[in-house]
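Troubleshooting log. The previous run stalled partway through. Resubmitting the same two chains, unchanged.
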Amino acid sequence: MSSVDRQLDDLHETITSELPADITVSDVKYEGPELVVYTRDPKKFARQGDLIRQLASKLRKRITVRPDPDALERPRDAREKVMKVIPDEAGVTDLDFHEDTGEVVIEAEKPGMVIGRHGSTLRDITKEVGWTPEVVRTPPIESSTVSNVRNFLKQERDERRDILERVGRQIHREEMSDDEYVRITTLGCCREVGRAAFILSTPETRILIDCGDKPGAEGEVPYLQVPEALGAGAQNLDAVVLTHAHLDHSALIPILFKYGYDGPIYTTEPTRDLMGLLQLDYLDVAAKEGRAPPYDSEQVREAIKHTIPLEYGDVTDIAPDVKLTMHNAGHILGSAVTHFHIGDGLYNVAFSGDIHYDDTRLFNGAVNDFPRVETLVMESTYGGRNDYQTDQDDAEERLKQVINDTHDRGGKVLIPAFAVGRSQEMMLVLEEAMRSGDIPEMPVHLDGMIWEATAIHTTYPEYLRDDLRDRIFHEDKNPFLADQFNHIDAGEDERQEIADGGPCIILTTSGMVTGGPIMSWLRHLASEEESTLTFVGYQAQGTLGRRLQSGWDEVPINDGESGRGSKISLKMDVETVDGFSGHADRQGLMNFVKTMNPRPEKVLCVHGDESSTQDLSSALYHEHNIRTFAPKNLETFRFL
Amino acid sequence: MSSVDRQLDDLHETITSELPADITVSDVKYEGPELVVYTRDPKKFARQGDLIRQLASKLRKRITVRPDPDALERPRDAREKVMKVIPDEAGVTDLDFHEDTGEVVIEAEKPGMVIGRHGSTLRDITKEVGWTPEVVRTPPIESSTVSNVRNFLKQERDERRDILERVGRQIHREEMSDDEYVRITTLGCCREVGRAAFILSTPETRILIDCGDKPGAEGEVPYLQVPEALGAGAQNLDAVVLTHAHLDHSALIPILFKYGYDGPIYTTEPTRDLMGLLQLDYLDVAAKEGRAPPYDSEQVREAIKHTIPLEYGDVTDIAPDVKLTMHNAGHILGSAVTHFHIGDGLYNVAFSGDIHYDDTRLFNGAVNDFPRVETLVMESTYGGRNDYQTDQDDAEERLKQVINDTHDRGGKVLIPAFAVGRSQEMMLVLEEAMRSGDIPEMPVHLDGMIWEATAIHTTYPEYLRDDLRDRIFHEDKNPFLADQFNHIDAGEDERQEIADGGPCIILTTSGMVTGGPIMSWLRHLASEEESTLTFVGYQAQGTLGRRLQSGWDEVPINDGESGRGSKISLKMDVETVDGFSGHADRQGLMNFVKTMNPRPEKVLCVHGDESSTQDLSSALYHEHNIRTFAPKNLETFRFL
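Second attempt completed without errors. Output:
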């Protein structure tokens, strides 16, 4: 009998003895980090409101109670009863009964009303029909990504349960080693930006944190081939943890499944969806540029299938000796600072991922409040001694000025922007500026993946800034649904019509003018002297965006039909508005550490070019007397 | 066609074009680091004295010329002719013809006379019979280890040639990576003494340096199980390099073959033989102490079979991007400082192994003269701020005093000593002291493995200190053959007889009184107040030696026949004479670095307890402004 089976037997016994005699427990299983208790008396369970919470706190486990299949009402009968329990205002859009797990998935416009106060409505549902309700939000804007992911997971439900059960047994296996150490190996993004990847290892456990590519240097990938990375194979990893969906952190995760990885990916739910969207786009771009993609869409689906979503603040066992907690990082939707508690009070490591320290319109500032962190691995994108950014208020003023000037001239404002994050921030700025009359009301056209990315944002308002979330939740005044926003969905004809029309604002991808609909917009608008091309994000060396920003006045045009290239000259006004970064600037990074309490003993400065990491490392050392490092790739640090 | 085959074809062509038209080259092969040229005209080759040297320098390869089998005289005829060419004074003791390689192995008491001036006699042999002569020394004292190793290698000749050919092709494979880095991973002996093991890695190559055990803590072995060590398996290693034979550096090497390693071990010839001796003894001790040995004698033989012996100063390709050179380390017979030249002038790393900086009676001081060394990995056994040793002259005076006092009382001097190194140093001290009349002539009895270890020393006089070697070579006055030395080879009866006799000196293992014949000697002599137990080496915490040294006066005696334990009380005088260490003391370690020119940029202080490594690291930093580290086990440092 394996140690996990012994453990489950003991748990079965303990739970039975803790429960009232009339509640029978038919089985106890691990599924991922959760303990699942099967009962033939789900209704009685539900009647005793606090039972599950008491059990969870006694056993120090996350517990889910599921009904035995024979204790369930038939779906046909149950459907009606469930709908009666849920208030109409909840706006239920779908009910889906899974007989294998006894779960009913309820998709509703207002999930809070399905849950009820402290979960009372959920309990009422179980009391009524025996089924275990699981609630998801109906996306306020329809997102094909979200519905694809949900449908896919529904379809793969059986395999997914097998995965979760296997992972659960792995997590709760017996510890084998009596050695004690904590190590971090750098596989990428040291003294450079891009290809983030780290291994956190103990004698028991090996965890990969992020696995990204390096934009503009597609050949440079994380050092997965060195033995530190995958050891005797990808199956040697216990877990993959993803801080956020940007490709320099997520692009190479699917390749792990090609290499034989078959374990869990821990991340937030919005990161899972955005990751899928961006990885598929990554394959698309590779194909268009004639590069052989390193994996195909099948592995993207594997990644999604293996994702175990965590919410901010959930303390989750991910290995016998490691607990993971994710916290808001303020960088993009679902981005997380990941905190690892190792052993029983032995050591704590936090990886900042990419962070924004101050609040933005979209997000609360990054969390830096942990019970303990001995070592912090910290991004340094703007860690250089002079990397101070324009204040966002000033940036917004400047942007409004540009828009007003252009509007006065009868021109259009063309803004290349990243689909995820920057675009939604812009939408919020523009919506408010129009509402308050700072700029005239005019259409804001959204092209490329922006609309889809926005739809994903509105699916997960819990991950947005408090007051923004409240506006969506309570006031039902979702700014992303404002009338002026128009999703370009009819292609070239629609663009032509807009180009022929009056003043407007166009937000479009790609953010660095390296392809996508921005190329078409330039062809339409390049000759308009009254219009303005406005940069609101970082333009990397080597991109057309950077060239245009620095005064270049020719735009290469690829004529789609003939396949030949030609050039048109750019007559538009070109403006740059700094201050909308998703990254903390030097001050923000310093503040992130300064306001930590207790402060970490050691900080590894990564994810920045050589001088940024060294500047930040040196500043943190001198100001706070912390031991700091600016690691190179392929080093291993041992703590303890 | 593989790149190695292409390379060999090119070499074949070049060599043919460089040679006179009447010399035909039938084949060109790699065997280990050497290029072997087969010719149908070995005699003509031999006639042109400088041809091989010219070729070697032109091709920058080590070249061996071998005759085609059909160009050879029959052994029966050749034997007589060979003996005619070699002067009688050479003292040939064996001739062995290998038809597969065309080699004749000549064992002689004076190998130099078989070689002749600049190899002239060797060339004469080939001119006469076509066979390629290979010369080995007849051990002046018969060593069963040496003859076992030689017989074994003779018997495994075919497989050995296969191994060498495979290794040769590996070494000369094409470089695959255009990345550049040099890394060191610490697998043991950091902030501790014992279980030495390091990985030196480049994008191309992974080399294991040493693989030892930890005496007194047999469970603590190098971290071979972490993926950095053996990666996707032991076959992932390109080479194993052994600095010297002591078990804390060599004990776990055979286990690699159990794990599937099948590559070369580079070390000196005496280290190979001593390693075999000590590893077999290691298995023996494990069996006696009831521990399951981690491998068996079969793997010891594999290790010997895979050893490619190098001489001090030979620059040897061991991988496409790594050249290895071994230099005298002054610590024990065959001990080496290993220098790695990586890439074409890219980077240089030296591992000190264990060193003695000053000359001893046995050895010249450690070599620290390299064209370049950017990083030095350095032992720190006596690196602590107060680790200064008694001067050896003073130590010798003190020892002579102890011996004279004991002799005057009519007693015997019992010296526990390590078989390898310390014992031979003692023998030289005693031989000279008697020759010069500083102590009276009396028998010196050698018990345990000491005689065998001494025999190995006399087989390799080239590895001993200049003047000692000269005494053995030119004056034929081998001090180890002095009359007073008696090898105890008749067991208990002989010991009883000696114990009943008059004043004498007994050198015996084990050095820390943890077993072996010293236990029997204590039983015989414990009650003799006039006799002296004299410690001349380090006694580790927890050993009986340390207890007796600190005043304990009881010796546990295991009665061999009844199996019961009892105790006898120790009446002997107990003396400690410091100053015979095989390790450099603090001053020696500092001098080793101080007199390097150029000095290394970085020094990793290892192989010492926590305070010793940190003290030495800090002292080197403050005196020479070198970047120094006192690594922990399981860290990886990247240089470049």
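Takeaways: Chain A has two domains: 161-386+583-639, 392-576. Chain A has 22 helices and 28 strands.
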